[in-house]
């Protein structure tokens, strides 16, 4: 089968970085048309630079990186550096990448690529706030025609939130953008904390990854080790959740996830529950959205180990 055309919209971020390494290591399955970056875990300037750093580690400088929105649509900007380190890459030091971002911006790239694409042909993986996607759909409503599906990391239902009691970070960071995207009627698969908290590192899983020799595997392990430290400090859990890698794992092996049709809407009005995802399985009308409910964590780690080997 021909590789699936894909755009990855991200805010690296240590777990975004692992997601990118996984995607870069699957050229037979994923044709990455471009990486678009957005402010989220750290500033827009840093997320763009980090995408270029990770691209260099993966030796995939054939893939263009486009810098995008550096603030949310309406909400006050916020970052999550305490979960990702001041530089967004776990405070690890990497050589400056030889190649930088493209001149065109992320929103223009998304709009033009999707508008010119064959109908329903391009998948979009989103591992950060949904600002770029909302801006592209607003600037070019006809761009929607090119979207095959959006697979995103975001939201929380049964798990509760990780940034407030009821909200997950990516949705909280730009709730208005998230609401616009969920309301678009496009086919969306949302993998929120309900599934990503099921996919955690443990000693056996890390030992297998750390035994791999490739530079991309070594970098992924450094990011995951940092993730384990902050998860223990800030959330009191053993094991780093693989939030963003879940999106790429889903695209590579959807059978390792269980999803259910749902209506999904985002709270934008209340300060108290900003970014809460209201996920309703009792459908009042057919929905193109699906909500992740279960993941086979062993299968996801097996996939990652085979791909990063
Ligand atoms: C999400 O928020 C970010 O901090 C992570 O990169 C992930 O995308 C998890 O809530
Ligand atoms: Ca992210």
Descriptive notes:
- By secondary structure, the protein is of the alpha/beta class.
- The chain has a single domain (4-308), classed as Ribonucleoside hydrolase-like (Inosine-uridine Nucleoside N-ribohydrolase, Chain A).
- It has twelve helices and ten strands.
- An eight-stranded mixed β-sheet has the order 3-2-1-4-5-6-10-7, with helices on both faces. It has a two-stranded antiparallel ribbon with strand order 8-9.
- Helix 1 (14-24) packs antiparallel against helix 10.
- The longest helix is centred in the last third of the chain and has 21 residues, at 215-235.
- The two termini are 22 Å apart.
- Residues 13, 15-16, 41, 80, 83, 127-128, 153, 162, 168-170, 243-244 line the site of beta-D-ribofuranose (BDR).
Key words describing this protein structure:
single chain; 309 residues; 10 strands; globular; binds beta-D-ribofuranose; binds calcium ion
Task: Set out the fold topology.
Blueprint: E1 4-10, H1 14-24, E2 30-37, H2 44-57, E3 65-67, H3 81-84, H4 106-116, E4 122-126, H5 131-139, E5 147-153, H6 169-173, H7 175-182, E6 188-191, H8 193-196, H9 203-210, H10 215-235, H11 245-252, E7 257-261, E8 263-266, E9 277-280, E10 289-295, H12 297-308
Parallel strand pairs: 1-2, 1-4, 2-3, 4-5, 5-6, 6-10
Antiparallel strand pairs: 7-10, 8-9
Helix pairs in contact: 1-2, 1-10, 1-11, 4-5, 5-7
The structure holds beta-D-ribofuranose and calcium ion.
Beta-D-ribofuranose binds at residues 13, 15-16, 41, 80, 83, 127-128, 153, 162, 168-170, 243-244.
